[in-house]
Amino acid sequence: MLGEAELVAHSPRPDLADLGRISTVLNSDTPATWVVTGDSITHGALHTNGWRSYPEHWTERVRWELGKPKNRDFVIDSGVSGATSAELVARFGERVTAFSPRVVSIMIGTNDIATSGLGPEAYRANLVSLVGSVRALPGSPVPVLQSPNPVDPAKWPGRVGLSRYAQVMGEVAAAQDVVFVDHYNDWLNGNGGQVPLSLLNDGLHPDERGHHRLALKMIKDLRVFDPGSRVCSLRVP
């Protein structure tokens, strides 16, 4: 007979209310603006080698493949190379508020670990602040937290502790009832616990394959995956 803790572990977790709110946005006739913000990984410059970044894959999935009227939605990529959680807090108005979003995705942390004064607890406080700022906007937009991907420890030894930042983001998401897209563990779990170097361009930034992997995880977790979709079934050579 299972004990209480085991029953909890084996029981399906109830859906977050925010997943239902995202579903409402996806099924609404009213145009919506999605803001996808973060650092260079979200910015998507250079390291995609001319292929689409994960926000661009998401745009294709929502604004084209889901058909009308979602083609009237907008997806704004306000990621900026070099950004940290502290900078995003300071520049929240221009990176998020300015676009009157319905959903706000935040992927941040890769630069925090390499920035003085932005240890895990400062990072935690900034994430809590960002979630609160999103929810406080008109219409109470839906926040989505997306963890950074793992990096090559041989090339980036100063960022080997990035797993702690991904863990902190997961803890904040759980405490704040926020949808959490855990790329960090998704990459490791799909590769025997090792960093999948083939998904990285320079050991840190995802390449074209890495960005598609990020997009697929986002698409699956936000429940718009379809194996017949060209985005979902794309094979990057």
Automatic annotation (TrEMBL):
Key word Kinase present: no
CDD domains for the chain: SGNH_hydrolase
Superkingdom of origin organism: Bacteria
InterPro entries: Ester_Hydrolysis_Enzymes (IPR051532), SGNH_hydro (IPR013830), SGNH_hydro_sf (IPR036514)
Segments forming domain SGNH hydrolase-type esterase: 38-212
Molecular functions (GO terms): hydrolase activity
Short name of any one Pfam family annotated for the protein: Lipase_GDSL_2
Protein known as: SGNH/GDSL hydrolase family protein
Lineage: Bacteria, Bacillati, Actinomycetota, Actinomycetes, Kitasatosporales
